[in-house]
Amino acid sequence: MPHFSWSIDGSIIGFYLLVTMAAGVWLRKRVRRVEDFLVAGREMNLHLGIASLAATEFGVITCMYAAQAGYTQGFAGAFPGLCQAGGMFFVGWTGFCVKRLRDKGVMTLPELFENRFGQRVRWLSGVVIVMGGLLNMGVFLKIGGQFLVLVTGLDLSYLVLIMTILLGLVAIYTMLGGMLSVLVTDFLQFVVMSVGLLVVTVMVLVYVGWDQLVTTVETYHGTGGFLPFANPHTGWAFVTMQILMGISTTLTWQTVISRLLSAKDSKTGQQVFTRTSFFFVCRWIIPGLWGIAALAMLGWKPLDALSATDRATLPQEVAQKIEASPVGIPLDGLSLEEQAAIPAKVKASLNDASLNAMPKWMSTFLPIGLMGLLLAAMLAADMSTDASYMLSWGSVIYNDILAPFRRKPWPHARAILWNRCIIALIGVYLFVFGLWYNMEGNVWSYLALTGSIYLSSMSALLIACCYWPRANNWGAFSAIVLGALVPVVHLVMEQSDSLKPLLHGFNKDHAGIAAFVASALGMVIGSLLKPKSSSVTPTPAQA
Amino acid sequence: MTEHWFWFGITVLVVAWYSTITVWIAIRGAADIREMVANLDAEQASEKVDESE
């Protein structure tokens, strides 16, 4: 029985929502120019930048996939956090690419590319950034709603209603105040979220205990639970992909870059990166510990995720194989024929078993009062992420995809109105996609793959733009097309029952790495193929 | 505990660092917001003066 009290926990949540909305709406009158709306007039200082970046990059979805990683891979599941922290610290400390990017005073990455590769590359970059970003955030709302429903013990049929309310609140303050509202609400959300995360983590360490967490990982995952290289389900492909992701997200992920571009100057932007970098370890370790604790207390019982009716549809032999499957991979021991015979709804429930384990356990672990604090923390995390993501992808749509339709600069009022309409449309998309898309397998791998649609090509473009004088638009086009093609083809094949067997174990990590390799090769080969006489491009310093 | 000192150390570091930075950011971030709003208000006021002139 979930420990959720509407009077106590509900009041805590209601109070938090009221304060956030008031703060978000309070700043709307200070938005006068489009720069205020998209990059907060470039007035962001260091501490606000750290709060905003940390709050943006920790959503309910982060908590869910990091807990799932802890549940299915043990401590080794937190490895991506170490890579992200390392990547961000390196980029912030050296200023690799980002110093030049901030010094140019652009609002988005594609705007920088226009100087070097031309208008068409800017437009196409905008398209792939938005495509990758929107596919990536398409699952946020559903998984966020799933967490809240499971923790409060509400019926799953309330999922749509909860998703609508969450999205509506976020959309209102983002549309009214843009980046200014996002920064201030991010600050509030960072404080609420951090207090909630820390209190719950201390409770987990005290009541479950370090020794039991370690024993659980040893029992279920062996050495692979501590070393990602030793885990047959992660291994070298996973590790390589995480290192590539760690650096490329810092360089090109629009929500991260928008903090750099909102900073007062490049030095402040770099400091935001170096000083926030360790937070990326926290954001994997904390929910990871919760996931391991859920495994310690609940064990791995995938059939418990099914209703009695759904369980009855499974033949005895298949049910036994599922029960004996490795943690987090319920269909691992089944043949393709056996898998195909399982109804889609049952398959989805089985796939969600590891994802839902942590919130299910939390719903009975935390006492009344602390449950309200956890929910307020998770709402804070989710709202800050959704707001920033809507604004960031919206800024690329306005600034780069719609750029060819603006022969001369639009008046500020018109530009802000367009940005508000774009954010509203992204909200509608999120709602529809969240209801429609059925995700296969591990959430983090899905996010990494959809992100690599543009992370791979944009990283290649940015590095070449800053440091390779020979780079040109042929290379840029090749990198963009190849970088997007690999993950998109993989996603389509994975969703099709007839094409899926052709993948032969070529998983999301392999596809992600292939995208990075294809982009880099595309940039080099494409640039070298263009005759020198027609590739008159500015030097890196000019670009 | 000693067997998995790396993950134990990371966990202790995470709790200690995150607690410290939460308090630090709560104090300094509020000051940043005040400064940002003041700068925007000052800009707005100077633009109004320019327009009236």
In short:
The complex is a heterodimer of chains A (543) and B (53). With 543 residues, chain A is mostly helical.
Could you please describe the fold and organization of this structure?
The complex is a heterodimer of chains A (543) and B (53). With 543 residues, chain A is an all-alpha fold. Chain A has helices at 8-26, 34-39, 46-56, 60-73, 79-94, 98-103, 109-117, 119-137, 140-152, 159-207, 210-221, 235-252, 254-262, 266-276, 279-298, 308-312, 316-323, 336-341, 344-365, 370-401, 412-436, 443-467, 473-495, 508-529. In chain B, 91% of the residues lie in helices and 0% in strands. Chain B has one helix spanning 5-52. Chain B is an all-alpha fold and 53 residues long. Chain B contains 1 helix and no strands. The chains are: A mainly alpha (543), B mainly alpha (53). At the A-B interface, helix 3, helix 10, helix 11 and helix 15 of A face helix 1 of B.
Labels describing this entry:
heterodimer, A: 543 residues, mainly alpha, 24 helices, globular, disordered C terminus, B: 53 residues, 0% strand, rod-shaped
Order of helices and strands of chain A: HHHHHHHHHHHHHHHHHHHHHHHH
The fraction of residues assigned to DSSP E strands of chain A is under 5%
How many separate helices of chain A?
A: 24
Q: How much helical structure, as a percent, in the residues of chain A?
A: over 70%
Name the chain pair with the biggest interface and residue counts per chain: A-B, 40 and 34 residues
Number of strands of chain A: 0
Q: In terms of per-residue confidence, which ranges of chain B show pLDDT below 50 for 5 or more consecutive residues?
A: none
Rounded mean pLDDT of chain B is 85
Give the tally of β-strands of chain B.
Answer: 0
Radius of gyration of chain B: 22 Å
Main beta sheet strand tally, sense and closure of chain B: none
